[in-house]
Known about the structure:
Distance between the termini: 58 Å
CATH architecture of the largest domain: 2-Layer Sandwich
Amino acid sequence: MVTKTSSVSRKTFVAREDLLNRMAEVAKTQGCSLFELVNDLFQLAIASDELNSSLKRIVEERKVLEMAKNSGFILGLECLWYELADSSYKNDPEAALKSWSDSGTWFAAQYLTGEGSFSFEQFKNDLTALTWNAPEFTIDQEKNKIIVKVTSPRFTEAYTHLFASFLAGAIENFGYQPTRKDVSRGIIRLNATRTVKSK
């Protein structure tokens, strides 16, 4: 049904009652009408489509940014980050690699639960979203094996080795032991096999 109000046409549509009731609560909290809130959502859905994205993806990425902020991550210039990585690696490669490996272990520990289970899928999704400086970043899980592939022409030699160490530390915390690690500037290929239960 379409009705005319001034120059604005309105059309009714079907929605789940529980969602509509929740939306009415959200509208009240935000100090607007349900009509205004629903139309704002339509406009955002159109805008996200024009960005070749979706509202769902945008919300998920926002959650990742919130997770990163709450976990101690900060934003920084990519070139400066590489420069600092190169400096630390040149000064003491062994200490730098251990530091990055320990950081990977710490990062992955956030996805382990007290019951011994873990959310590897969420870990993979979050890390993929955070590693936006790599055109190729994939973590494939096949039964008891993991294959990590990273490619970025902007990575320096030192940063590539340090990031590979971070990844190895992270997947080891899920009970996987690296069995093959090929690392060269801008390219990481890491294979790992599950050997023990997650911590």
